[in-house]
Amino acid sequence: MASLAVTEFVINPASASRLISNPITNNTFFFFCFCFPKRGASLLLKSHLHSASRFRKANATTSSSSSDQYDQRQQQEEENFQDEFVSLPAIVPNGPIAIYGLGGGTAAHLMLDLWPSLKLEGWEIDEILIDKVRDYFGLSDLEKPTATGGVLQVHIGDVFSPSEDASGRYAGIVVDLFSEGKVLPQLEEVATWLKLKDRLMPNGRFMVNCGGIDGVSDMTYGAARPKSMNDVWMHNSAIRALSEAFPGKVSWKRMPERNGENFLALTGLLPDLSSWSAAVPGHLSETVKKWKPCAPSQ
C-alpha cells in the first residue's frame, strides 16, 4: 500500500539473547520478524538499544526531571534519527505534534519521555501492527494522559487523504514514511508538500526522515559528484522536493554511517542553533548543531 510506514526496532545484541530466551517475548520477536515482513515492521540488530519494548513512560512532573531521565537512558546509546525527532518540540509553537508513520511508537515514547505534557497524534495505516504494538510494546501506555496532560492519540488511516479538520492544526509534523526500505514516492513530489503544509499552524515545521542518496553508491557519486559535501543533500529527491515547496526554508543533516546515513530535513528558517542546543538535553545539545541550510555552493 502506498502510504505504508516501516517501523524499526533496534536491539542491543546483549538484549537480543535475553529477548529470544524469554518465553513471552520470544513469540513477539518472531511474530514481528516473520508476520510483518511487508506490513511495517523491520527488526534490526545494531550495537545500541532503541526498542519500543525497552521504553518506559516518564512520570516526571517537571521538564528538568524529564530531561534527567531521558539523558540517563541515552548515555549508552548512539545518535539515531528517532532521537532527532525529540528535538522538534523545542523549536515549534505550542500545540499538538503529529507523527506520520507511527509504526511501533519509538518516536512517541521518546518525545513523551522528554516532553511529558506534549499532545501527540500518531498516524499509521496498518491497524494490525498497532494492535500488536499496543499488546507487546507498551503503546497503550502512551494513550493514557501523563500527570501533566501529555498523551498520544492514535489514528488509523492514510496520511495523504484529505482532511478538512487538519488545516492549521499542528505545531509540528514528524514524517517517517517508508515502504520496502525506501521513502514513499509521494514525499518526492512537490505537490505533496504543498498540500501537507496547510496542516501546519503559523511557524510550524516538518521534520522528515528522507532516506538515503538516490540510486547512488555510498562510495561514489560518479559523474554527478556534488561540488562539495555541503551539496550532497541535492542527491536526495525528498529534500529537493521540500526545497521547492519551501524555498529558502529547508535545512538538512545526515546521520552517521553507523546509523544508515539517512538524510533528515527540517522546514522553516534555520533556528538559532545555540538556543536550540540549550533547550534539549544530553547528546541532542550537540547533534542539533549539525543542521545546515539547503543552499547550493557557488
Oligomeric assembly: single chain
Q: Describe the global form.
A: globular
- What's the architecture, going by CATH? 3-Layer(aba) Sandwich
CATH superfamily: Vaccinia Virus protein VP39
Protein name: S-adenosyl-L-methionine-dependent methyltransferases superfamily protein
Keywords: Methyltransferase, Transferase
Organism: Citrus sinensis
In short:
The chain has 298 residues and is an alpha/beta fold.
Mind sketching the topology for me?
Layout: E1 7-11, H1 13-21, H2 25-35, E2 41-45, H3 63-74, H4 81-86, E3 97-100, H5 106-114, E4 119-124, H6 127-136, H7 139-142, E5 151-156, E6 170-175, E7 178-179, E8 182-183, H8 190-196, E9 200-211, H9 237-245, E10 250-254, E11 263-267, H10 273-279, H11 284-287, E12 292-293
Parallel strand pairs: 1-2, 3-4, 3-6, 4-5, 6-9
Antiparallel strand pairs: 7-8, 9-11, 10-11, 10-12
Helix pairs in contact: 8-9
Question: How would you characterize this protein structure?
Answer:
It is a single chain. The chain is built from eleven helices and twelve strands. It has about 300 residues and is α/β, with parallel strands linked by helices. It is globular. Residues about 1-65, about 70-80 and about 215-225 have low confidence and may be disordered.
Key words describing this protein structure:
alpha/beta; Rossmann fold; 8-stranded mixed beta sheet; two-stranded parallel sheet; 11 helices; 12 strands
